[in-house]
Amino acid sequence: MNPKVFACFAGVLLALIAAVNADVSHLVQENPVTEVCLRCICDASSGCDPTVRCSGESCGMFRITWAYWADAGKPVLPGDAPESQAAYANCANDPQCAASTVQGYMRKFGQDCNGDGIIDCLDHAAIHKLGGYGCKNTVPVAYQTKVDQCIHYAAGTQI
To answer: Gene3D superfamilies, alphabetically (predicted)?
Structure first.
């Protein structure tokens, strides 16, 4: 092989390797879920009742499970530690920390669940209810109806 061709080929190969290994974390939105969408997910999950605490396997207004919280990066309240026995419940029962948990979960699992070519509130609501690997399944009718009504009510606002 001609040394100039080899050098050119090697340069292109190195550039491709660098591109594949590039940090693309900046391409993911810091907060992919809008405030309106967070309210709609909260409303569909619990009526956004701030008195809702832990029952069964989920906690708080967003009905967050321990696995969901862990997948979201284990956000915690100030002064708490992710390893603390109460960190999950403390966060899931706090409106701001719970909203941060939803944002973290969507940063990890955000995807176009309904195949319309965009990632929007309908996708985030499906991911929240069905999980990051199940969002293409059928969303329960009662939950979807509440999300749809909330989105229509908020029409004109970014959703």
So the answer is: 1.10.530.10
Domain(s) of CATH 1.10.530.10: residues in the chain: 43-109
3-state secondary structure of 22: coil
CATH fold of the domain at 43-109: Lysozyme (1.10.530)
Q: How far apart are CA 76 and CA 64, in angstroms?
A: 13
pTM above 0.90, yes or no: no
| Phi, psi for residue 59 in degrees, rounded to 5 | -135, 150
User: What's the CA gap between 12 and 18, in Å, rounded?
Assistant: 10
- Rounded distance between C-alpha atoms, residue 91 and residue 70, angstroms: 11
Cβ-based neighbours of 136, under 8 Å, separated by 6 or more: 113, 114, 115, 126
pLDDT by 10-residue block (mean), the chain, 159 residues: 41 36 49 97 97 97 98 97 97 98 98 97 99 97 97 74
Amino acid at site 1? M
d(CA 58, CA 155): 30
Q: Is 125 helix (H, G, I), strand (E, B) or coil?
A: helix
